Amino acid sequence: MSFRDHLTADLRLVLLRVLECAPSYECNSSILQMSVEDYGHNASRDQIHTELTWLAEQGLVTVDKPVATVLVATLTARGLDVAKGRSNVPGVKRPGPGA
Fold first, then answer.
1. 43-to-1, 29, 40, 47, 96 alpha-carbon distances in Å
2. What is the pTM of this model?
3. Distance in angstroms (rounded) separating the CA atoms of residues 60 and 66
């Protein structure tokens, strides 16, 4: 696995974990972009949209597009299981024990 693959897998986990902490398990892409910076990711809005789309294809989030430049993501039950380490999805980093 390349360094870029490790970063992408970690970013996907961070997005799921941010959604896990969000009210109603829901957040817009603008807030998600700011939140992942707190975890050391310097992701563009386009990259956040790309990863949210990928997570939606895996059934880990649902995505709505209320306005042209913002996506709203909602964590699914499957996504919560992955964020908590109860389930694994290739391409998403598995959280460490006790995390």
1. 20, 11, 9, 6, 22
2. 0.94
3. 19
